[in-house]
Q: What sequence folds into this?
């Protein structure tokens, strides 16, 4: 646990960066790097939970307990990383230097988060998932940024919903650190779509109590499955 806490102390510096005078791009980059710095430490401190990964034909089971929840997060980070890799591999027409910089930094963060969970889970990790982005027009700025907003908002709702299901307080604290970075991604994407507006905290994601959206794993998996060729099952994930 001490090693896990050491990694968390590194990751939590992400929030402090926002108070500096750095540009948004530098903030995004540094936020991702602080997360990366904790990967090896967290991997050593991560205990082995019961996680019967025995996928049914054509389906990947995420497992059970805390490890199942970590695999759930790992699956979502795989999807986000694959999306931003595709965005930068085939950039839409007229993409600006600022947009390229922001999307590149977010891509790098998602790769860091993806690799973070893979390293932390070790032999408990699910395999690589195959994305299906056939319904996204990567030549269209509006479609790409709209999909990016969807993925970021969905990821935040997923972390928020999974928080109540995590038993190990160390894992819960880690999830809180990562979701704070994801929230900054969402705000950055929203600002690219509609600069200098309150769009980043609209009624579609913030409720009447001023709280961000929270959704259950079953809701999230149903929402993201159309973007994955690999079938995922969360049947063994905790529900309470």
A:
């Amino acid at each position: 646990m001490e090693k896990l806490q050491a990694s968390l102390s590194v990751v939590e510096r992400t929030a402090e960066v926002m108070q500096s005078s750095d540009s948004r791009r530098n903030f995004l980059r540094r936020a991702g790097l602080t997360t990366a710095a904790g990967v090896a430490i967290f991997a050593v401190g991560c205990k082995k939970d019961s996680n019967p990964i025995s996928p049914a034909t054509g389906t990947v089971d995420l497992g059970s307990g805390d490890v199942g929840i970590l695999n759930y997060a790992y699956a979502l980070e795989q999807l986000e990383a694959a999306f931003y890799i595709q965005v930068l591999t085939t950039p839409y027409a007229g993409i600006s230097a600022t947009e390229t910089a922001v999307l590149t930094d977010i891509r790098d963060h998602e790769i860091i988060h993806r690799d973070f969970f893979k390293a932390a889970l070790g032999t408990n990790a699910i395999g690589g998932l195959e994305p299906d982005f056939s319904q996204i027009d990567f030549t269209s700025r509006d479609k790409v940024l709209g999909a990016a907003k969807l993925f970021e908002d969905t990821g935040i709702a997923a972390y928020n919903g999974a928080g109540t299901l995590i038993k190990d307080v160390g894992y819960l604290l880690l999830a809180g650190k990562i979701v704070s970075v994801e929230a900054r991604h969402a705000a950055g994407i929203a600002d690219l779509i509609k600069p200098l507006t309150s769009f980043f905290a609209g009624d579609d994601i913030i409720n009447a109590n001023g709280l961000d959206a929270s959704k259950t794993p079953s809701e999230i998996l149903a929402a993201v499955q159309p973007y994955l060729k690999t079938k995922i099952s969360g049947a063994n994930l905790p529900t309470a």
